[in-house]
Specification:
heterodimer, A: 294 residues, mainly alpha, MetI-like fold, 2 domains, two-stranded antiparallel ribbon, flat, B: 353 residues, alpha+beta, 6-stranded mixed β-sheet, 5-stranded antiparallel β-sheet, 9 helices, 35% strand, elongated
């Protein structure tokens, strides 16, 4: 190998060297814990002791135990996170659209204001909602004061609807960001061209604005669907019995049942489905388009 | 028949008067250009006609109908945008069919129209291509096709040749003119390039600082400009200041220039305008109505022609553009030469007009 070739090879290697710090953190804080969990999921727990047995029992147990309760819970969680996604995007899109089109020079002030709630912990936000929607909450208090109801209404809190609501509202500000960015990227002249060719404002939105904001929309779906699928805080605080989610069951298995192999198997089933969803989404739009929306 | 008419149109953006009492009328089937430097209000004028801007004062009429309050999608105009504004998420067919689909034409008719218009712009069979896959010139043609397929009363073109390289631009200029001849639609073309405007237009309106300076055929603007601005903007001109006296202009320090007669009061201040390519240059010139001596200050050899800057005794600098055939040689810096021109090559512009 000539010195010149050597130099070229070195340059090529140096190119990859830049990846090292990032990969290092990923390995240390994501892959190592996951690998440990993955190994646990094939072990057994007998009398609170981990036994390295290499068995599929845990996975079988998750699927079959309690008449498939866990699988039903898993599907229900997916349904709830899909519902939260739909509701959240239908709140975030108009916000993003308004800011992009009408906020003018205050655009970035708006964006910063919208993200401000994230300075507060998610748990505190949830308790905040309880003081509004809960049994002795603000809404019930006002309705009683006004004499519209004689005793507090209970369907505002502690059910699946409340979970979907808090998830949707909680995530909506985040979703504004990718949608806003993809709307900002649409050249004003494209909208003018559509108008010029005979489209009404609504037709212009449907034929040009909406299709061109799809990368942002899908990125928003990414943002909310995958994390809410495994959510366990919101259903614990707002869910009651009807709003229970799979994430709660995982937490339960880890803590109350203290069955780590079983909990790990549950986690890996969730992870596998999440990866499939992510994969389908990426295939559908292409990673590049998705990254463009960032 | 008048197709488009602007009456006293004014548009302000805050303190800035973008369009200042502009009036003109365009005949049906005319190729009309709005020519001027950037920021002169030509694009704003076009956008007012398209309906993207409402004028603060004045009215726009298309086919005799007032366009007041009529949104762009209800106007009989279509526009070719400066950046083309082709829809990136659609292929060529869907781009061109966009307007036709909104009109709810039957599919077979849309197919036929798209096919025909693609033939007109010399892109047959391009229906399935994506915009990204097209070259700059091809995108240009698709943009023109997308606008023209709607058979607008007026086609508006906002400097669409700007991003093209010189060679492609020259090609597209001829293409545009051919297309316009074939479809016989009224074209309103905005440009800062006097060459484009002169080549294509039936009529040109020269604009500056929101105002129309002069409207006329390319020949009129080139030969008989009404102001130093137009004289210089359309084809560059030598402008010499002096006093008009009976068919001649007295220039202090230079002498008398014999000029074409105009009805101008004697002793009024005027500009004499002479185009660089009408000025003869040589060691010893004779048989010309005006001959002066000068010294060559600058020489720019450009291949098919050479541009000289010649300093006159009074300090005026005359620009001369001459071919090798004219001079038989290339003159050098510092050479003493004669410059001269005939009465017929001069044009007098009264000052203050």
């Amino acid at each position: 190998m000539s010195s010149r070739d050597l130099l070229e090879t070195f340059k090529e290697i140096r190119h990859y060297l830049t990846l090292v710090p990032g990969v290092f953190w990923l390995v240390l804080f994501l892959f190592v814990p996951l690998a440990v969990m993955g190994i646990f999921s094939f072990w057994s727990m007998i009398e609170y002791e981990l036994i390295p047995t290499w068995t599929f029992e845990n996975y079988v147990a998750v699927i079959t135990s309690r008449n498939g309760l866990y699988i039903k819970l898993l599907l229900k969680s997916l349904g709830m996170s899909v519902a939260a996604t739909v509701v959240s995007i239908s709140m975030a899109y108009p916000m993003a659209y308004y800011i992009s089109r009408y906020a003018g020079k205050y655009k970035y002030l708006w964006i910063n204001t919208i993200i401000a709630p994230y300075m507060i912990s998610w748990v505190i936000t949830l308790f905040g909602w309880r003081t509004i929607l809960g049994y002795g909450g603000l809404i019930n208090f006002l309705l009683m004061k006004l004499g519209l109801i004689s005793e507090p209404i209970t369907w505002l809190w502690h059910n699946w609807g409340a979970v979907i609501f808090v998830l949707a509202v909680g995530w909506a500000p985040w979703l504004v960001l990718p949608i806003f960015v993809s709307l900002e990227k649409i050249d004003e002249s494209l909208l003018e061209a559509a108008r010029d060719l005979g489209a009404s404002p609504i037709q212009t939105f449907l034929t040009v604005t909406l299709p061109l904001s799809i990368p942002g929309l899908l990125l928003a779906v990414f943002f909310i669907l995958i994390p809410t699928f495994g959510e366990f805080v919101a259903p614990r605080i707002a869910g009651g019995t009807s709003g229970a989610m799979y994430g709660m069951a995982i937490e339960d298995a880890f803590t109350r049942m203290a069955n780590w192999p079983f909990a790990s198997a549950m986690t890996f089933i969730l992870l596998a489905i999440s990866i499939v969803i992510a994969f389908v989404l990426i295939r559908r739009v292409g990673l590049e388009t998705l990254m463009e929306a960032l | 028949m008048i197709d488009v008419e602007l009456v006293d149109v004014t548009k302000r953006f805050g303190e800035v008067v973008a369009v200042d009492h502009v009036s003109f009328s365009i005949e049906k089937g005319e190729f009309f250009s709005l020519l001027g430097p950037s920021g002169c209000g030509k694009t704003t004028t076009l956008r007012i006609i398209a309906g993207f801007e409402e004028p603060d004062e004045g009215e726009v009429y298309i086919k005799g109908e007032s366009m007041k309050g009529v949104p762009p999608n209800k106007r009989p105009t279509n526009m070719v945008f400066q950046n083309l504004a082709l829809f990136p998420h659609m292929n060529v067919y869907d781009n061109i069919a966009f307007g036709l689909k909104l009109k709810k034409l039957p599919k077979s008719e849309i197919d036929k129209k798209v096919r025909e218009i693609l033939e007109l712009v010399h892109l047959p069979g391009y229906e399935k291509r994506w915009i990204k896959q097209l070259s700059g010139g091809e995108q240009q043609r698709v943009a023109i096709a997308r606008a023209l397929v709607n058979e607008p009363e007026v086609l508006l073109l906002d400097e669409p040749l700007g991003p093209l390289d010189l060679k492609l631009r020259e090609e597209m200029i001829l293409e545009l003119k051919r297309i316009q001849r074939e479809v016989k639609t009224t074209f309103i073309y905005v440009t800062h390039d006097q060459g484009e405007a002169l080549t294509m237009s039936d009529k040109i309106a020269v604009m500056n600082k929101g105002r129309i300076m002069q409207i006329g055929s390319p020949l009129e603007l080139y030969e008989r400009p009404n102001s130093p601005f137009v004289a210089d903007f359309v084809g560059r001109s030598n402008l010499i200041r002096g006093k008009y006296v009976d068919g001649a202009v007295e220039v202090p320090g230079l002498g008398s220039i014999a000029v074409r007669k105009r009805k101008i009061p004697n002793n009024s201040e005027v500009w004499v305008c002479i185009k660089p390519e009408r000025v003869a240059i040589g060691k010893k010139l004779s048989r010309l109505d005006n001959v002066f001596e000068g010294e060559i200050k600058e020489v720019y050899y450009q291949g098919k022609m050479t541009m000289y800057k010649v300093a006159m005794p009074n300090g005026n600098v005359i620009t001369v553009v001459a071919t090798f055939k004219d001079t038989g040689t290339i003159f050098d810096y510092g050479e003493k030469v004669n410059v001269g021109w005939n009465v017929g090559d001069t044009w007098v512009i009264p000052q203050g007009e």
